[in-house]
Amino acid sequence: MDFYSSLILITVLLMVAMTLHVVFYHGFTRVQKTWYLLTFGSITFCSLAEFAVHCGYYDPAFAVPLTILTVLQFSTAPLLGVFFSGALGMHRESRFAAIPFLIHLIIEIVAAPFGWIFSFTESGYSRGDYFLIYEIFYFISLGYLVVSMFIVGRRFRNRDIWTIGMVLVLLVAGIIPMTIWKINVTYVSIGIAAAVCYIYYNDLVQQDTMSEFAASQQRVSQMQEHIITGLSSLIEGRDLETGEHVQRTKAYVTLLAQCAREDGVYSDVLDDQYISLLQTFAPLHDIGKILVSDRILKKPGKLTPEEFEEMKKHASQGGDVVREVLNGITDEEYLGFASDIATYHHERWDGAGYPNGLQGGEIPLSARIMAIADVFDALISRRCYKEPMSFEGAFSVMKAESGTHFDPKLIEVLLRHKDAFIASAKSPVDPYLPSN
């Protein structure tokens, strides 16, 4: 077997491999598979026909069947660009583009008996005086394929002009030998080009799918932020003090978590994602207050025991509100994170808190961090029922409550970074914050 025949057989094996991949690949629709199978099947047929004619075992007795085979080959070859354009998604355009190539089939059939385009003589295959007809249709087909690649490429975000250029080089590498030296290696070049196009197209689909998924995730994230901002605004609309409070506590929980990680406290949990979620969902910790009556929420004096019991319900109700609002736009892990902050930020380290009387490590870390930020801001802020406490006074209260109300490790972090919390507290324009 000569070198040329070996190339043809390698091309056939490549097309068989591509065909098998199409058959067993589940990422295509039935229409896409049909176009791909037409493409790779046609290249396989044309390559085998080329091998049958030029394998070096020609017998004049087979001139008629070889003529029929070559007519079919010459009629199919110009359709390769049309088939692959269909595989690239240009289904409607490819159906119309096939019409002139059907006309070429008629020309081939009519010309075959007269040897105008090709003929088989005693010495074997030879080109006819009008072989240029076949070449023109073949070049048009390849040109159509190249144009189709540019058109399809524009539909994708991640198109790569270099890949299209490489396909052009491969096609030209097959055309030049056929035109100048009458060495037909076009099926080798177009087979390799088809494989490259196939890989390139699938890569474009996957990259765009990944980009679309990332964009979708970004849209969901933005939706969550808008919902959280809206819910926080609802709280602020009910109670101006609470509205300012959620903005300050958002800064405190972020600072406390970052400082704890720097100090090696719960650093195995407090990664970037955890702190980001803490910062995102902290404004929802008092969302349950939208269900508390104005009579209790805006009462200027101290609450009665009965009123306080009603106020306490905002914790468990807040968890329910979070789950009801965010369910369906975030996964269970994030949903549970947000719900934990709203539900358990009034639990105490010694188990005397509410709503469930959780103790120590039973309380989610997010809620323990939230509890410190919540009380710290309440102490240093003016409320309708009290004056603000000094920073040092607030730190003293927090220290005294370490191990009873608060996680002692987190209180140690708070006290080690007092200056940072004072700076954070003074950063908002708030006339109710203490000056010392």
Plain-language structure description:
This protein has 436 residues and is mainly alpha-helical. The chain has two domains: 3-212, Up-down Bundle (Rhopdopsin 7-helix transmembrane proteins), CATH 1.20.1070.10; 239-426, Orthogonal Bundle (Hypothetical protein af1432), CATH 1.10.3210.10. The chain is 69% helix and 2% strand. The protein contains 17 helices and two strands. It has a two-stranded antiparallel sheet with strand order 1-2.
Question: TL;DR of this structure?
Answer:
The protein has helices spanning 3-24, 30-54, 63-76, 80-87, 91-111, 131-153, 161-180, 186-238, 240-262, 272-281, 294-297, 305-326, 332-344, 365-380, 391-400, 408-416, 418-426, and strands spanning 118-121, 124-127.
Chart the SSEs and their pairings:
Elements: H1 3-24, H2 30-54, H3 63-76, H4 80-87, H5 91-111, E1 118-121, E2 124-127, H6 131-153, H7 161-180, H8 186-238, H9 240-262, H10 272-281, H11 294-297, H12 305-326, H13 332-344, H14 365-380, H15 391-400, H16 408-416, H17 418-426
Antiparallel strand pairs: 1-2
What is the molecular shape?
rod-shaped
Strand content: under 5%
Helical fraction equals 55-70%
Average pLDDT number? 81
Q: Keyphrases for this structure?
A:
17 helices; 2 domains; Rhopdopsin 7-helix transmembrane proteins; two-stranded antiparallel sheet; Hypothetical protein af1432; 436 residues; disordered C terminus; mainly alpha
